[in-house]
Amino acid sequence: MKSVVKNSEAFAPKSRSALPAAKSAFQRTLLAWYRIHARPLPWRQDPSLYQTVVSEFMLQQTQVKTVLPYLARWLVEFPNFAALAAATEARVLKLWEGLGYYSRARNLHKLAQAIADLPVPPRTTAEWRELPGVGPYTAAAITSISFGAPAACVDGNVVRILSRLTADATLHRDSASASKAFAPFATSLLPAQNPGDHNQAMMELGATVCFRQNPLCTICPVLQFCTAGQRGDPESYPNLAAKRMEHVAVTRVWCERKGSLLLHLSAKTARRFANMHELPTAEQVGLAPATVGAGKLLAKKRRGITRYQITESILAVPAPRGQLTTGLVWVPFAELDVVILSGPHRRWVEEILVGRGTSLARLTH
Questions:
Q1: Between the N and C ends of the chain, which has fewer C-beta atoms within 10 Å?
Q2: Domain boundaries 10-240, corresponding CATH code
Q3: Among 197, 185, 190, which Cα is nearest to 159's?
Q4: Could you report the per-residue pLDDT of 64-112, keeping only the tens digit for each?
């Protein structure tokens, strides 16, 4: 039985001897393909340090098609670091609403404020790593694309490509440890000229050709260099330990009173959802199990967050009497478009209202 690699820095696969010998040909072939087939994305068509930074933050754990409309709206309101630095956190979160992982928005805001205080933006990966929310991958992407720094980007897409090129079957604990293990190899393939284009080409290949399932090997520009592709078993790589998913059940309540909806407002000090509204849980409202059990089921939603599979039931229950407990607030339906609702909760509210023959748009105008 294979064991998970525990010391990724010491990882030195035996199957990487062939590709470095053809490194120059691999680099040329990949770059030629990228220059013809790269998607016309806004941060590529009108490149700037600011657009690169914002897009990299938004693209963390989010697909390109989801990011595009958010980026367009963001650039209208916050066209540069100075404008973003001067904005309130509430406005930043409102523009980010629906993208999830809101710590990214807060860190991007803090980063803009830090850069606005500097005479010139930092240029090295080490300097960027000191800024809020910037890890190894983001620092490499920003500095290689904007400043030509010789820094390789290694994310899940790149790990997938490198493991297939070499047919490396080493079992890794998770994507993060695999990225760390493959970083030296990725660096060895980085060209001296145009390292940013090489990084983008690798990411583009992973996003549009070298899919996790059903990769398009027949049209892959670097198939001649790919051991797994030529053997016909690319989906066997990378070899990551199976995630242990934990199932969680949450009961949320729908309470109305005089044209207002009861919501829970997280504290300013909350780690994940500070200053954000969500439909409250039964525990937050302090309802007895019998009261909740008698409520009408309005919706049942399932979603995955990291290693959790969450089932959330939303039940209509009577409005609580007396003074509300800490965190609970009545928000008029007419003001729901003003407050910051987490993305899933805004969708759920809209779906429930549509099911009743109305909508947020009608209630807020």
A1: N
A2: 1.10.340.30
A3: 185
A4: 999 999 999 999 999 999 999 999 999 999 999 999 889 999 999 999 9
Annotated catalytic residue within 56, 97, 278, 312: 56
**How confident is the model over 306-325, as pLDDT tens digits?**
788 999 999 999 888 777 88
Q: Which residue has the tokens 């294979």?
A: 2
What does pTM read for this prediction?
0.83
Q: For residue 70, count other CB atoms closer than 10 A to its CB.
A: 18
- Residues 178, 174: Cα–Cα separation, whole Å: 6
Distances in Å between the alpha carbon of 321 and those of 266, 283, 286? Answer: 21, 15, 11
351 counts as catalytic: no
The class of domain 246-363 in CATH terms is alpha beta
Other CB atoms within 10 A of residue 331 CB? 16
Domain residue extents for the chain: 10-240, 246-363
Q: What pLDDT, on the 0 to 100 scale, is given for residue 322?
A: 75
